[in-house]
Every structure is written in structure tokens, then in C-alpha cells.
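Appendix B. Chain record.
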Amino acid sequence: MTIWKFSEPVPGSAHAFKYSLFYGYPGKRIVGYDNERGKGDHRHFGNRQEPYIFSSVEALVSDFLSDVQHVRGKS
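C-alpha cells predicted for this chain:
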């Protein structure tokens, strides 16, 4: 997990955080949340990519960890 805070919103997002949360192994992303420049807030879940509604850093981390627990069969 990497989260940066900037003084202004990141292009494509309405908040000042840039983030990249990754669960997987080299060459294989299983769960990922990020807000790549121009794409805005979104998540990767298996082969799917879908929009993510960012509300706070705490909710972001909680949602990511919940998805990780789900794919590990622990939810």
C-alpha cells in the first residue's frame, strides 16, 4: 500500500490523495485499488476493472482489505 497526499486534487480525482494498493504476486494482480492519472479512482478485482467511489483514506484501506480477505476465502 502506498498513499501520498498532495496540496491539490490528482487529475481525474476530486481529492488530494494519490494511491496504489496491490495484492498479488509478481506479474499477477489479484486485487488493486489506484487512481492512475486520467483514469480516476478505480479498483481491479481479478480481470475486472471498475470505478471506485473514494470517501476517505480509512474507507479505502478498509475496502481494499475486505476484498483481499474475500479472495483469500476469509470473509
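Further analysis of this model is presented in Appendix C.
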